[in-house]
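Can you give me the bound-state structure? Components:
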Amino acid sequence: MKKTIQVINKLESEGIIKNYAVGGATALLFYTEPTLTFDLDVFVLLPGFKQDPQALVDLGALYQALASRGYKPEKEHVMIEGIPVQFIPAYNELVTEAVQQAAVKEYEETKVRVLTVEYLLAIMIDTNRPRDRERAKRLLEEVTITQATLDSILQRFSLRENWETYIEGK
Amino acid sequence: MEKMFQAKRRRRKELANLPIEQKVSILIELQRLAVPIFRARNLKRKVWEI
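Here's the bound-state model for the whole set.
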């Protein structure tokens, strides 16, 4: 995984991606007990990025840069150093802010940007698939959440009601 | 029963506190165990080659 992260960091330092953060089950791995996943989700902000739901997102330059290094796409993933990576452009304001506010962690002495637990929770509550609810439950059981940070995110992204519904049904 | 659940919760917290490198090693073991099950359901999954 170290080599995979190094490739992604290089894409960022070369300006091919503006910013990134590991999300999904692999981000969860940084906080909770290990659970099964087969891919690495990476949320990205691209150069010239503007938050506009109508804007078309072009991953062409990113895929081209990866292909020039020998990393070819396989369906929705790009196999990078033995790990299938899915690049997901930040698709709303919540995810954009989550990427910007990501925590810098280390994996085998390599820096890696990872979504924080509070943003992971907010995104799960927003997405609200059964697997998100299950993951949110695990986060709440195993990790200490900074409640004030979570409250602020829920408030600003109008997720308070979704949160209350989730907590009631948990 | 409650003692058993408490022990489970404690074990989960212990696992959550492992270094990330160790958790990735455990994840790869989980993938090795799961791949044949996915394959039997015609779902293609690959163990990370790291």
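A couple of observations. DSSP finds eight helices and seven strands in chain A. Helices of chain A lie at 2-13, 24-29, 60-68, 93-100, 117-127, 130-142, 147-156, 160-169.
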